[in-house]
Design a protein that fits this description.
This protein has one domain: HIT family, subunit A, CATH 3.30.428. The chain is 20% helix and 21% strand. It has 2 helices and 5 strands. A 5-stranded antiparallel β-sheet has the order 1-2-3-5-4, covered by helices on one side. It is globular and about 40 Å long. The mean pLDDT is 97. Bound molecules: adenosine monophosphate. The site of adenosine monophosphate (AMP) has 12 residues, from loops.
Length: 117
């Protein structure tokens, strides 16, 4: 939900109210291609549970959070991202969070700059 109590774009995608390129799904999460990719591979790993951002995760969410990371590892393995990949979570306005539903960006397929800030 966003601040107005409406579904976020990611909840609408999870509920199949808005189309997206779904690359994987299980009972806990969905993996979609980012609509505005910043690299040849740009996937969003999104929990089905409504958690607005990592700062609002609760102790009950610990296993789900680990699952999201493991899904990233499995995606990297099956898509042969041996050259590297980056996982990013934007939390809050300073970090440029735009969708208030927790998600991990998995970015790969090009040389990336560091630091990112
Ligand atoms: P963040 O800035 O971390 O909140 O990232 C939100 C991401 O969601 C951005 O990279 C957007 O390009 C992406 N995004 C927004 N709407 C969609 C959509 N309908 N399908 C896929 N990705 C989306």
């Amino acid at each position: 939900m966003n601040l107005n109590g409406e579904k976020t774009i990611f909840e609408k995608i999870i509920d199949r109210e808005v189309p997206a390129e779904i690359v994987e799904e299980d009972e806990h999460c969905i993996l979609i291609r980012d609509i505005n990719p910043c690299a040849p591979v740009h996937i969003l790993i999104i929990p089905k549970k409504r958690v607005p951002r990592i700062a609002e995760a609760e102790s009950d969410d610990e296993a789900m959070l680990g699952h999201l990371l493991f899904m990233a590892k499995k995606f990297a393995e099956t898509h042969h991202l041996e050259q590297g990949f980056r996982l990013v979570i934007n939390n809050g306005p300073h970090a440029q969070e735009t969708v208030p539903h927790l998600h991990i960006h998995l970015i790969a397929g090009k040389w990336m700059a560091w630091p990112p800030c």
